Amino acid sequence: MQVIEYDKLDIVKYPAISLRKKTKAVKKDEVDLAILIPKMFEIMYKYEGVGLAATQIGLNYRIFVMNVEQDKNKKGEKVFINPQILEREGFQDGNEGCLSIPGIYVSIKRALKITAKALDENFQEFEVEAEGLAARAIQHEMDHLNNILIIDRITPAQKIKISLELKKMEDEYFEKIGASEGYKKTVLKHGR
Ligand code: NI
Q1: How confident is the chain (192 residues) per 10-residue block, as mean pLDDT?
Q2: Ligand 1 centroid to 2 CA: how many Å?
Q3: E strands within 34-184?
Q4: pTM (two decimals)
């Protein structure tokens, strides 16, 4: 089992490289899901998100959690391990934010309805049909597992509008970690 310091897990923000680190399928008993899953929900609720992918807390595993219910009722909690989107139908436009890029909201076109399959917290396979916000959240979190961020899905015109804010996040991050020029280039080659 991989040693993870669960208490130290927290949101990883743009442009941190872990958001761009290739993910791997979760194997049974490789990570302690009984600890990891509640921790992921805890972090998601702390930052008032509706979904959270492992890459957003620095773990490159194919797992995300979500709860799109208004009251954040426990029964609204869904866990997706090694998920796949099987079908997409229709389109929806809407503003989307991301806990890893706080303060940025951009309009993104997504499929209106999707069918997905995944393993749940007990490693049992399930299939789900989702629509509207739930479908949007699943597509957003799937993107995280494929290292795609909302800023990769917007038009050049949209990107110009938020470029100053992104630059500020990059500068703050690079200063915090004391990044070399070479490392900055490596991080930024993933696009902005
Ligand atoms: Ni996100």
Answers
A1: 88 95 93 95 96 97 95 90 98 97 96 98 97 97 97 94 95 93 87 60
A2: 24
A3: 51-53, 63-66, 78-89, 92-96, 106-110, 113-119, 125-131
A4: 0.95
Length of the chain equals 192
Q: Give, to the nearest 10 degrees, the angle between helix 181-188 and helix 156-177.
A: 150
Q: Cα-flanking dihedrals φ and ψ of residue 131, to 5°?
A: -140, 155
Query: Residue 123 in 3-state DSSP?
Result: coil
Evaluate whether 15 touches 167 at the Cβ level (below 8 Å).
Answer: no
Distance 96 CA to ligand 1 centre (A): 9
Give residue for tokens 């290739």. 22
- 141 as an active site residue: the answer is yes
* Alpha-carbon span 15 to 185, nearest angstrom: 11
State the Cα–Cα distance between residues 51 and 161, nearest whole angstrom.
25
pLDDT given at position 73? 84
d(CA 46, ligand 1 centre) in Å: 14
* Structure confidence at residue 191 (pLDDT): 64
Ligand 1 centre and the CA of 3: distance in Å? Answer: 25
Surrounding ion ligand 1 within 5 Å at CB are 98
Spell out the domains of the chain, with CATH numbers in brackets.
6-188 (3.90.45.10)
Residue of 89, 127, 131, 141 marked active site: 141
Bridge partners, 127 (sequence order)? 117
